Fold:
Amino acid sequence: MIDKIESFTNNTSYEDFSKDVNLIDATIMRLQVIGENMSNIPYSLRKQHKSIRWKTFLNMRNFFSHKYSAINHELLWQIVKNRIPVLKEEITKIMQTI
Structure:
C-alpha cells in the first residue's frame, strides 16, 4: 500500500493532487487499509517499536472512514509526503528483524 501511494504521488504536485478526485480517493482508501492492517499487529510488537506512531495511524484510519467529507486535502498531502516515508522506513526496519 505504501509503495502504491508513493508511486502515484512521487511525481505529483500538491496542485495536481488536490484536483485529482480519483487519486485522493485511492490515497484515502490505501491509508485506511494501512491503518486497518496496523490495528491487527499484536500489541506486544507495537510496544517493542514505539518509534512508530501507532495510535496516530489508527486514529487516522477511523477519521478517514467516518469523517470522509471533512478530510482536508492539504493535510492528506502532508501525511503522504511527511508521515508515510517515515512509516515505510520504520516498517522496513521491523521486517528485517522478523
Observations:
- DSSP finds six helices and no strands in the chain.
